[in-house]
Amino acid sequence: MKLLLLLSHGQASVERGFSINKQVAVENLAELSYISQRVICEAVKNHGGLLNVPIPKELKASVRQARHRYAAYLDKQKKQALSRQATSKRKELEQELDKMQGRKSKLQKTLKCLLESADRFSEEGEAKNNLTYLVKANSFCGKRNPCENCTAFTSLVSK
């Protein structure tokens, strides 16, 4: 079967009356369907009408298998849609995971900074025998280990 190609060549003003787009235009057609219908219309036109188009054995065999090819095409489209959906879900999860890991690292840095400040206040309180620094150190530690600095605190209280 010969393949006919329609090429746009910018002669629309001259050929406005010859356009077959209006004849084959249907609302819900994909681009591939429009191209196929235009090829068919041109082939019929080149053979001098619908009754003059030769029907070879290959065309008859192709028509018999058309439903099978269409079902295979639909399956392929469905698999591609599922694949795209799975890919988008995976990308969303990866983005969420990256976001959570970023938050985790920020929290770890903040925690490290707070613990260093608490240790510094604790050491300063012990060095200067000042309870204010130990209270600040305990407030930074929170529920981490409230009795960790208790030994320094009780030693200062007893003095």
Shape field: rod-shaped
Radius of gyration: 39 Å
Q: Which structural class matches the secondary elements?
A: mainly alpha
Give the amount of beta strand, in percent: under 5%
Number of helices: 6
The helix-strand sequence is: HHHHHH
Task: Classify the helix fraction into a percent range.
Answer: 55-70%
Please mark out the parts with pLDDT under 50 across 5 or more consecutive residues, or reply none.
1-10, 146-150, 153-159
Count of DSSP E strands? 0
Mean pLDDT: 77
Query: What distance lies between the first and last C-alpha atoms, to the nearest angstrom?
Result: 106 Å
The largest β sheet comes out as: none
Coiled coil: 76-124
Keywords: Coiled coil
Write the layout of secondary structure elements.
Elements: H1 21-24, H2 31-46, H3 57-64, H4 66-128, H5 131-141, H6 150-158
Helix pairs in contact: 4-5
Keywords: Coiled coil
Coiled coil: 76-124
Please give a structural write-up.
70% of the residues lie in helices and 0% in strands. It is built from 6 helices and no strands. The protein has helices spanning 21-24, 31-46, 57-64, 66-128, 131-141, 150-158. The N and C termini lie far apart (106 Å). Mean pLDDT is 77; it is low at 1-10, 146-150 and 153-159.
Short recap of the structure:
The chain is an all-alpha fold. The protein has helices at 21-24, 31-46, 57-64, 66-128, 131-141, 150-158.
